[in-house]
Structure formats: structure tokens, C-alpha cells
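Hi there,

I know you've been waiting on this one. I reran it after we fixed the sequence typo, so this is the corrected version. Both the input and the resulting structure follow.
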Amino acid sequence: MEDLNFWYPALLFPAIPLMMIVFGNRYSSLSKLIRELHDRVIQEDEVRVKFTEQIELLTDRLFLVKSMQTLAGLSFIANLLTIFFRYINIPSVAFSFFGVATILLSASILLFVVEIQKSSSALSKHISDLKKWINFILSRDYFL
């Protein structure tokens, strides 16, 4: 594999920016959720206790998204360095940077999977709350 040509980094090159777009979209939706939750907590006293667990999940998810974006950005830089060092004909350094780029992108994707699991957990809590409210309303209307 010492003969690293331009095709290997070229295959990785378009994947990294696409992952960064996906991570950026997740960050945007997460920041919207945090702002909405902030407004509700500030306005309503009884809501504060209820949302403590959600705030912790959002904090964890925000850290994961930040880490995913950082690793993807570093992977993109390493991939660019792979192309550069191959261009100036230093294949051993190019090979090393390609390995780093691949590892960083893999770590970023693994964090993405963890963040999706946390996101699903948060949505499950919302569904559970909705079911409780529906059952409460149905039982209350039944006795009226």
C-alpha cells in the first residue's frame, strides 16, 4: 500500500463534507430544542423539575455533536494533507495522513451513532409523557 495514489483520498474526500453537513444539521436542530426548552423553563416554574433529565440529555448530545464536528473537520484536514503530500511525492507521509483521516472519520461516525441513540432515548421519554397524559385525560373524561 506504499504506492498510495490519488484515488484513495479522492474516495474519502466527498464523504467528509457530507458528514459535516449532517452533523451541522443535527447541531441546528439541537440548538432549536435547547432554545425552546430554555424559554419554557424560564416562563413556567412547575416545568423546571420536569425537564431536568432532558437538560442533561441535551448537554450530552451537544458535547457529542461538537466532538463529531471536530473529528470530521480534523479528518478533512488530514485528507487534504494526504493529497498534498502525495502531490509533492512523499507517499510515506501521505499514507500516514490517510490512515489518520480514516481513523478520525470513523471515530466521528461512531460518536454519531451514540448521539442518535441518545436522541432516540429523549424521544422515547417524550412519547412516554404523551402516553401518560393521554391515559390521564381518558380516565378523567371517563369518570365525568
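Quick highlight: The chain has a mean pLDDT of 79.

Best,
R. S.
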